[in-house]
């Protein structure tokens, strides 16, 4: 079990330790924390719970040590950021498989670093390149000409269609599929309607460094060229990204979001749950889109939008209030018209 002194943790997260220095072996939630755990508090509303907690060590905002006189407190500017950094110290190490690689197929032309870990029941195709520290769990499929950067992890049942490129230190959770054909069809007119003709795809998917993709999310290959996800972007479970989409760096895409083909999502964009982005739309740098919104056209840089179609969030909130009152307003208008 890992153990760190509070002073070591404070230095790592960029905080200041107030109180006794001792070893911590785990990170835990406030109501679950024990005496050897480090927990956190970011609001004065929870001070009573914190003082009654068994935990002796806290991450807390600047100045909070005076409210927790019997605790050791690491004061930080941003508790959530400090929590993220501290969590990396206590993360679980991946176990290495023991025994032979039974039922694993590796094409002779594949190049696999000696310090990569490949579990049984994995298929690795022709000319695949797998770098140092990569971990591939059982039942993964890695198609021909794929490249997987150093330190990347593929959890069970990940599928990489041929030509997919993954950067360094990516995490792909179970069921992720990269490189399937996009949803592209041409309608040939017939006497009784039309026939759907498949447009075959010739591109690939490229994923930047430190991208995390949640379970059962899918990213389609480009019709021509590349579908791209920039470095540091985090994608939740059950997200669909269409062909030729380009997503910038450090974006957040929450569950059930769907992005239509050839859309552009610039750096630092945040899309909340169930956002729909129509094909060819543009979301500029730093924009935020509220849950269940529908984006069509272009969202300016830094804009916060909501609704279907998405409009300025401030305007949408006012419109929602009016919408609730529409039946009453209609009655009043009807009375006025009858006079």
UniProtKB/TrEMBL annotation:
Pfam families assigned to the protein according to its UniProt record, in alphabetical order: Hexapep, Hexapep_2, LpxD
GO cellular component: membrane
Top-rank taxon: Bacteria
Catalytic activity: a UDP-3-O-[(3R)-3-hydroxyacyl]-alpha-D-glucosamine + a (3R)-hydroxyacyl-[ACP] = a UDP-2-N,3-O-bis[(3R)-3-hydroxyacyl]-alpha-D-glucosamine + holo-[ACP] + H(+)
EC number per UniProt: 2.3.1.191
GO MF: N-acyltransferase activity; UDP-3-O-[(3R)-3-hydroxyacyl]-glucosamine N-acyltransferase activity
GO biological process, one term: lipid A biosynthetic process
UniProt entry tagged with the keyword Lyase: no
Keyword tags: Acyltransferase, Lipid A biosynthesis, Lipid biosynthesis, Lipid metabolism, Repeat, Transferase
Keyword Repeat listed: yes
Active site: 243 (proton acceptor)
Domain UDP-3-O-[3-hydroxymyristoyl] glucosamine N-acyltransferase non-repeat region: start-end pairs: 22-88
Pathway(s): Bacterial outer membrane biogenesis; LPS lipid A biosynthesis
UniProt record similarity statement: Belongs to the transferase hexapeptide repeat family. LpxD subfamily.
Assembly: Homotrimer.
Entry function: Catalyzes the N-acylation of UDP-3-O-acylglucosamine using 3-hydroxyacyl-ACP as the acyl donor. Is involved in the biosynthesis of lipid A, a phosphorylated glycolipid that anchors the lipopolysaccharide to the outer membrane of the cell.
NCBIfam families linked to this entry: lipid_A_lpxD, PRK00892.1
Protein name stated in the entry: UDP-3-O-acylglucosamine N-acyltransferase
Species for this entry: Caldimicrobium thiodismutans
Gene: lpxD
């Amino acid at each position: 079990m890992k153990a760190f002194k509070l002073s070591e943790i404070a230095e790592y997260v960029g905080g200041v330790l107030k109180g006794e220095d001792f070893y911590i072996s785990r990170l835990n939630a406030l109501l679950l924390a024990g005496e050897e755990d480090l927990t956190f508090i970011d609001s004065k509303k929870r001070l009573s719970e914190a003082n009654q907690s068994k935990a002796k060590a806290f991450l807390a905002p600047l100045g909070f040590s005076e409210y927790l006189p019997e605790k050791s407190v690491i004061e930080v500017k941003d508790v959530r950021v400090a929590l993220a950094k501290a969590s990396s110290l206590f993360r679980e190490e991946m176990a290495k498989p023991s025994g032979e690689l039974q039922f694993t197929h590796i094409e002779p032309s594949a190049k696999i670093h000696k310090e990569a870990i490949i579990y049984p029941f994995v298929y690795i195709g022709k000319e695949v390149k797998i770098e140092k520290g990569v971990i591939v769990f059982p039942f993964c499929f890695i198609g021909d000409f794929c490249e997987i950067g150093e330190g990347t992890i593929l959890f069970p049942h990940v599928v990489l269609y041929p030509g997919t490129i993954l950067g360094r230190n990516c995490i792909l959770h179970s069921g992720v599929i990269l490189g399937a054909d996009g949803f592209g069809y041409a309608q040939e007119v017939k006497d009784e309607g039309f026939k759907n003709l498949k447009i075959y795809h010739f591109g690939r998917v490229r994923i930047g460094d430190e991208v995390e993709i949640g379970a059962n999310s899918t990213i389609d290959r480009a019709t021509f060229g590349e579908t791209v996800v920039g470095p540091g972007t985090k994608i939740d479970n059950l997200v669909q990204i269409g062909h030729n989409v380009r997503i910038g760096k450090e974006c957040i895409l929450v569950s059930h979001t769907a992005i239509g083909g050839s859309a552009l999502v610039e750096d630092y964009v945040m899309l909340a749950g169930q956002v729909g982005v129509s094909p060819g739309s543009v979301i500029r740098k730093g924009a935020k889109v509220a849950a269940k919104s529908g984006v069509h056209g272009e969202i300016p840089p830094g804009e916060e939008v909501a609704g279907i179609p998405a409009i300025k969030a401030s305007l949408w909130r006012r419109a929602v209030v009016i919408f609730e009152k529409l039946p009453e307003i209609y009655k009043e208008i009807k009375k006025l018209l009858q006079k």
